[in-house]
Amino acid sequence: MSSLPLAEIVQPQQYFQKGLGLKAVAQEQLSRHYHSRLVEYLRTHEHNLRVGNLRFFLAKEFGFCYGVDRAVEYAYQAREKFPERRIFLTGEIIHNPHVNHRMLEMGIGFLCGQYSKDVSFENLCKEDVVILPAFGVTTAEFQRLSQIGCIMIDTTCGSVLNVWKRVEQYARDGFTSVIHGKYSHEETRATSSQAAKYNHGHYLIVRDMEETDLVCDYIAGKGNRAELLAYFKKALSPNFDPEYHLQKIGVANQTTMLSSESLAIAERLKQAMLAQYGQDNIATHFRNFDTICSATQDRQDAVLELVKQQSLDLMLVIGGYNSSNTNHLVELASTYTKAYHIDDPACLESIDLIRHKPIGQSVETVSRDWLPKGGAKIGLTAGASTPNNKVGEALERLTQLRGYNVEDWMVS
Is 37 helix (H, G, I), strand (E, B) or coil? Predict the structure, then answer.
């Protein structure tokens, strides 16, 4: 497979990575669709607001990150630039149902996933426009699109690209990439494909510390080859041989994972390699670079700061149920207070009933008696793919449930 950078195997007029010259138009539309006056008010009033006997605290970092904002903006630019052409996303542009439904309303289709209809890669032609999402695409998908001749709008996040560089460097130098992530996640699939750009490139994907320990046991000579291969069969590069390919490893991660866990996994792997090869030889057997996304880190730090500083009665985390970074915000908050993960303000059905997704589960459930009686301190945050208007609507919905009009409590 070619080791050329992906952008070098397509024609310049076919590939757009730095926008399409319509930023001002797109920004006006984005503001109209996703802006929240209430959220802006909170930002200028120390991130808190008292409404009757309720007091709300908004995390200092929340919602759209730079990479997500850029990806959505490029989609809007593409629709303006090519009004008469078919436009498709390879998959979800970001993990937020409202933004993905907005794409459909704009006439932008999906080639796969829950929002796709009757068009796939097989139906594309060179006149079509294809948007590559913030997660990126695999090298095979990129090459397939370039061979078709589609116009490609690449919105891959810069933090993801940084991880790709590390994984490609590992492969080039003969190191196997051990990636902390979810093997089915679009980003991790795209990242692992970077290792396959080289014939001797390999990868192994670990979900958590428990899976990491299985790898470390094998490195220490305590594992079973057949059992390891069977357990990780969906999370390994083709022709993976643990006896050989775990002798030299480099650690990377899906950028939206829990940062503290990624760091702990890297350290656990390092200790296993130190025990096997010694300090004098560690540099030739182990590599690790900090590939944690700064926006993900900032949002996680902000949640921890909020729940540690305030004695909250509950925390609302707003974002897509399949959003990895949003799920991790719920995990962090839940160690200090009752935390509910909702994907839409409509989940707040009444004072007595809330629809939400519990930690570790994949489907929505219903809980009752969720909102404390009387006075309450309520925290709010949102995943990196959640637009501000959904945060504002959730806060407004909460005040309505208690019979308040939030506008009456906003001081000029």
Answer: helix
- The one catalytic residue among 187, 227, 305, 364: 187
Task: Provide CATH code, domain 35-64+295-409.
Answer: 3.40.1010.20
Instruction: Report the pLDDT value the prediction gives residue 73, as an integer from 0 to 100.
Output: 97
Give which of 29, 158, 40, 161 is closest to 99, Cα–Cα.
Answer: 29
When pLDDT is cut at 50, 70 and 90, the band that residue 6 belongs to is low
Mark whether 92 is an active-site residue. no
Question: 1 pLDDT exceeds 50?
Answer: no
Q: Summarize pLDDT for 293-315 with one digit per residue, the tens.
A: 889 999 999 999 999 999 999 99
pLDDT of residue 7: 52
Q: Which CATH architecture has domain 159-292?
A: 3-Layer(aba) Sandwich (3.40)
Phi and psi torsions of 262, nearest 5°: -60, -45
User: CATH 3.40.1010.20 residue ranges in the chain?
Assistant: 35-64+295-409, 159-292
Spatial neighbors of 207 by CB under 8 A, at least 6 apart, are 180, 181, 182, 183, 235
